[in-house]
Amino acid sequence: MSNETRETEQQGVAGFMARAKERAGERVKKGANERIVRPFEHEFSGFMGNAISEGRLFSLADAVSDYQLNDIDVTDTTCEYCAVGCRFDVLSKDGTVLGTRPNPEKAPINGISTCVKGKFSHSYVTDEDRLTQPLVKDDGEFREASWDEALNRVVDDLDGIREEYGPDALGLVASSKATNEANYVMQRFAREVIGTNNIDNCNRLCHAATVSGLSSTVGFGAASVGIEALEETDCYLITGSNTTEAHPVIATKIKQNVKDDDADLLVFDPREIQMAEYADQYSRIEPGYDNTWINGLIRHIITNDLHDEAFIDERTTGFDQVAETVEKFTPEFVEEKVGVPPEELKNAAETIATADSCVFCWTLGLAEHSHGTENIYAMANLALITGHIGTPTSGLSPFRGQNNVQGGGGDMGPIPNNFPGYQPVTDEENRKKFADAYNMDVEEMPDKEGFRITDMFLAAEQDDLKGMFIQGENPLISEPNIGHAREVLETLDFLAVQDIFLTDTAEYADVVLPATSSLESNGTYTASTRHVQLVKRAIDPIGNVKPDWKITQALAKRFGYDWEFSHASDIMEEINDLTPIYAGITHERLEDLGEEGGLQWPVWDEDHPGTPYTYADQFQTSDGLAHMHPADTVEPSETPDDDYPLVMTSGRVLYQYHTGTMTFREPGDVSYSNRSFVEIHPETAEEYGVSNGDTLDITSRHGETQAMAEITSRPSPGEIFIPMHYLDGGANNLTKEKPLDGPSRSPEYKVTDVQISVAGSDTDTPASAVPGSEEERSTAADD
Ligand SMILES: Nc1nc2c(c(=O)[nH]1)N[C@H]1C(S)=C(S)[C@@H](COP(=O)(O)OP(=O)(O)OC[C@H]3O[C@@H](n4cnc5c(=O)[nH]c(N)nc54)[C@H](O)[C@@H]3O)O[C@H]1N2
Ligand SMILES: Nc1nc2c(c(=O)[nH]1)N[C@H]1C(S)=C(S)[C@@H](COP(=O)(O)OP(=O)(O)OC[C@H]3O[C@@H](n4cnc5c(=O)[nH]c(N)nc54)[C@H](O)[C@@H]3O)O[C@H]1N2
Ligand code: SF4
Ligand SMILES: [Mo]
């Protein structure tokens, strides 16, 4: 087959499947057992045939056909990529992952579906680059070290800084990739062992505005509805969520409900993402002006008496102030600022207000702004004034990000303001409760809120933070402004990184500790829908790696603290005692659930069945009422001018995951998107003389980079999109570390003003050959 034919044949999902199959085949044949077991193959073919559309029929049977059925290990676990919370069986043999297959018996959220990452992107686990032994740096060079030496060095250096500058000169970062149990012990380590509330995680770069906005209006910083609502509601408002690429399994459920049951779908997004194709109405918006158009919807609803007065009177406070605030958000004002024509605003407002049920869905397009919390207030106000909250099919549904950011990034308390279960650290009763449990004097329990991760980076610049211990996060690429992040990492007196790979961040570390990956770990993750689900070890840990919680426990021991956890389930028992919303969630109970799968918190005791939707009777506030807050900021922190005339927004592509430590090692994923690109509208391209495939210089007020042009009408003229995944050419070369959103301290990743110019031409590159191009991605997401 010529290379050219091969290239063409391997476009789209079919190509992805072919490559994955080829790879799995090769992998399995290494040391394969020659016996072919027919019954197993049939079981598989039948299952796959029923469950998965033809284009997806990747024959796992091929991958396992060299083995006896009873030679293969089958382990049910939860996906390690995103917070949808898909569960599947992992098939493995002698420490090699052969593949995964959905197991609807144990998968309450995804049933028979997974996306390409859950299905294929696990070969990183046994990649030759995996960290297998601790590393310490001497004279600028890493060398392998024993666990003893590496742990002692971490303890000595953290202790040295603490002695000299106090505990608040240290910053700890917990990992939302790691289990609930690992995150629980990490917060305990910060508070009990180090004596600081300077602990945070990637939620700050993500949905922190959602959490702060929802906590102060409705109570829980989490989705109010579960998967049933997403399957059955009559109406969706989706904004700032590229659902088909970032939450593909949820997207499929929404598309099905729209297609089969005629649910209304309203999409507001600056880019004409694939979800727009399925929408009854797609409205293109200017990035950075979300509370403006949402206030416009609220105004139209109130002015036309379409609001739910009974609900507002009985269950909320703050309506009059909201009604007054939205007065200025007239249809004309909204059109001028955001570009939504009055008839679209009217139609959307009336569709939402008159629907029997409605789910309000959003992701980072709403949250990652300098007034992100206000955007969330506006969204919550819209749900509250229409009374679309507190029923099985109506409510608020932010789609969370990392596999365990809901649980590990919030519920477990590795955050500067709350103990596990959102119990504020500033409350003396809470401090006493945790101090008693940890056998501490209450005076020793730190009582002031600590630094958020974004503030840790700003504090380090001011020399107020001297050392960091980072678990499972790669801030060099993911924090706003790579230039700033690099400077901070370079100037720290001490940095320890605990990861599964030697990341770009780890390169700056003094000590690197190798952790088990998800497929080598036991514990739980909590999905976006508040489902707590089991994670199980599918293969033995490679090399000399250790589970995250065991590493933290070993460090605590060297500081003189004897924690006696011998399994992740012991940690969950302690969580049960101290965290009311997790009081009834035990590993045993999760194991026994069978078809029901996970438990949705709050689960107040062992007999409580879990909570599929919240706020049926009351909100989680002191008086049980929802507290509406007005949201009247209009402008983002920067607006275009002659020097920086275009607006860049940033985000993700289907095949890549964040900083790429896992997906860049998956040949199938890389063959789709192996370098950064700039989506640019044809009119803008013409204005700047840009051809497809040209290398562009892109400059912002904060940095500069180069990436390849992809001409597409996805963004509007005047806007460009750059993915966040790449160090070279990625969006964070251009973003800024401040200002931050007031209440949540999140960065404004979604709005950066830029100018562009052509640096070099490669006009022979056809659009569809541009890695990660719109054409390729939409074919794939379609399937
Ligand atoms: N394939 C893949 N999936 C992932 C991830 C990944 O890295 N790769 N990461 C996971 C994580 S941690 C997260 S948080 C989620 C993120 O999931 P998403 O938030 O859906 O992902 P983004 O690509 O950041 O897209 C945000 C959307 O916001 C739009 N947008 C940009 N600016 C604005 C604005 O000002 N207003 C509004 N309303 N919209 C705007 C963009 O056009 C885009 O459609 O994805 C999760 N899933
Ligand atoms: N411009 C721009 N920037 C953004 C965003 C954006 O939309 N635009 N989105 C932001 C968002 S929403 C997020 S969530 C962040 C994500 O930013 P990060 O969290 O920094 O990104 P990841 O690449 O997911 O990093 C996770 C790290 O954990 C490691 N890891 C995986 N499994 C384990 C494990 O079990 N244990 C340990 N110890 N380590 C593990 C991985 O190798 C990887 O290095 O990026 C943010 N940055
Ligand atoms: S949708 Fe998310 S949880 Fe489900 S398989 Fe894909 S990455 Fe995994
Ligand atoms: Mo995220």
From TrEMBL:
Q: Can the keyword Transmembrane helix be found in this entry's annotation?
A: no
State where composition is biased (Basic and acidic residues). Answer: 774-783
Q: Which SUPFAM superfamilies match?
A: ADC-like, Formate dehydrogenase/DMSO reductase, domains 1-3
Keywords (alphabetical) are: 4Fe-4S, Iron, Iron-sulfur, Metal-binding, Oxidoreductase, Plasmid
Spell out the Gene3D superfamilies in the cross-references.
2.40.40.20, 3.40.50.740, ADC-like domains, Dimethylsulfoxide Reductase, domain 2
Q: Tell me which Gene Ontology terms the entry assigns under biological process.
A: formate metabolic process; respiratory electron transport chain
Could you say which EC number(s) this protein's record lists? 1.17.1.9
For this record, the Gene Ontology CC terms, alphabetical, are: membrane
Q: Which domain of life is it from?
A: Archaea
Using the record's annotation, list all stretches that form the 4Fe-4S Mo/W bis-MGD-type domain. 72-129
Where composition is biased (Polar residues), the residues are: 757-766
Span list, region Disordered: 757-783
Which InterPro entries did the record assign?
A: Asp_de-COase-like_dom_sf, Formate_Dh-H_N, Formate_DH_asu, MoPterin_dinucl-bd_dom, Mopterin_OxRdtase, Mopterin_OxRdtase_4Fe-4S_dom, Mopterin_OxRdtase_prok_CS, MopterinOxRdtase_cofactor_BS
Question: From the UniProt record, which GO molecular function terms apply?
Answer: 4 iron, 4 sulfur cluster binding; formate dehydrogenase (NAD+) activity; metal ion binding; molybdopterin cofactor binding; NADH dehydrogenase activity
Family of this protein: Belongs to the prokaryotic molybdopterin-containing oxidoreductase family.
Q: Which PANTHER family match?
A: FORMATE DEHYDROGENASE H (PTHR43105:SF14), RESPIRATORY NITRATE REDUCTASE (PTHR43105)
From the Swiss-Prot or TrEMBL record, give the protein name: Formate dehydrogenase subunit alpha
Q: Which organism is it from?
A: Halocatena salina
